[in-house]
Amino acid sequence: MTLPPSFPPGPRGLVEVATTFRRFMNEPEAEFRAAHARWGDTLGFRLGRDRIVVLGDPGLIGEVLVNTDGTWVKDRVTRDLSVFLGMGLLTNEGASWRRQRKLLSPSLTRRHIALYADAMVGCARRYADRLADGDERDVHADMSAVTLEIVTETLFGAAFGHDPTRVGHAIDSVMVDFQELVQTWRRFLPATVPFAARRRMVESSKEIDAVVMEVIHRRRRTGERGDDLLSRLLEARDDEGSGMSDQQLRDEAVTLFVAGHETTANALSFALMFLGDHPEVDARLRDEVARVLGDRPATADDVAALRLTDAVARETMRLYPPAHLIGREATRDVALGPYRLPRGTAVLISPWALQRDPRHWPDPLAFRPDRWLDGSAERAPKNAYLPFGGGPRVCIGNHFAQMELVLVLATIARRARFERVSAAPVRVQAAITLRPAGGLRMRVARRGEPSAPQQE
């Protein structure tokens, strides 16, 4: 089928398209930037029956993300996550999404998430207290365990009643299998083909449901409530006074569980890697923590004063955004810049490539947290920094995640620093999220408990 004359330039022909797609899957950030350098900020190609447009222009990206009339919905790959996420905020659309967003929003405001700071600090402190000088650790596995504990306590409460690793392992298994289905030749075959990965996803989803639905049913039956997110969602009501069904609660809980566990663990892992590679930044962060906190634990009120710690988190997500790819699909024929895109066209946006674009970020590959302190980051165009997405569908848990990153980093940094055990570049895996491939081995350098600076 011939592409419309107004369709963007890009790879053409079976061999060129297949080669480009394979590179997108294997080295997405480098290939996105190389493709934009060759064909411009808007490029398009056909992949099987799919029309795909790749955007690198922050202005056009804003047109797609800041969409309120239903022209753009989540792309098919994101919608396919509903196999295990259900119809939570990530995968939902239209009126149902608006209702759910309105029901969840009050529980994730800055004021409400401050209630979870103690849990974040407590989990991080228990982890840091167990570290022994000279230990060699897989930091990514460690951060996954810490964030799993945090999300379990904040979402379900201390009296969860189950081993959280049961859900954590099931979710990890689902994400590996989902990647196998969407990033290989299997994506071109019907969803009815019974691949082993698809069967495993079904079984893992049942495992997740068995735990989450049991907790929801128990809370309904006993009326047990607390300060955890599930308690707030159980009490949430829309304008007509209706709450969420058990299935809606399950879908939102699993979506929050995945987002609060996987993505934050990845960001923390890369942040500790950068601090290990940049001892001068690590020393400054340690001094900031000592100055702001002295010998007491961090609280939500300290986040604003931990400016360098916050900058380290932001710079880490600039270089390694956990949500490294954003997809949308046109629900109707639509004009985008000089091009006319047919209904069903998928648009891909790579925050990973965008946030390393030298046109927007001076010295783009360098880890420079100070760009978030000296005002230079503010000179980047709007929509050139998208670690949490953008527009009406910006991640609802962005304030929660940013606070968690700052508090966990500050708590760990006062007790230990990590040093790389190998000078080899860290390999990354660009799956559903961006994570270190094969773990991240680092050695612990234990610190003494800091005291408040002496006043002269």
Topology:
Elements: H1 14-26, H2 28-39, E1 42-47, E2 50-55, H3 58-65, E3 72-74, H4 76-80, H5 82-85, H6 94-104, H7 110-113, H8 117-130, E4 136-138, H9 139-156, H10 164-182, H11 196-222, H12 229-235, H13 246-277, H14 279-293, H15 307-319, E5 326-330, E6 334-336, E7 339-341, E8 346-349, H16 351-354, H17 398-413, E9 416-420, E10 428-430, E11 434-436, E12 441-446
Parallel strand pairs: 2-8
Antiparallel strand pairs: 1-2, 3-5, 4-12, 5-8, 6-7, 9-12, 10-11
Helix pairs in contact: 1-2, 8-9, 8-17, 9-13, 10-11, 11-13, 13-15, 13-17, 15-17
Which characteristics define this entry?
disordered C terminus; 17 helices; 3-stranded antiparallel β-sheet; alpha+beta; Cytochrome p450; 456 residues; 5-stranded mixed β-sheet
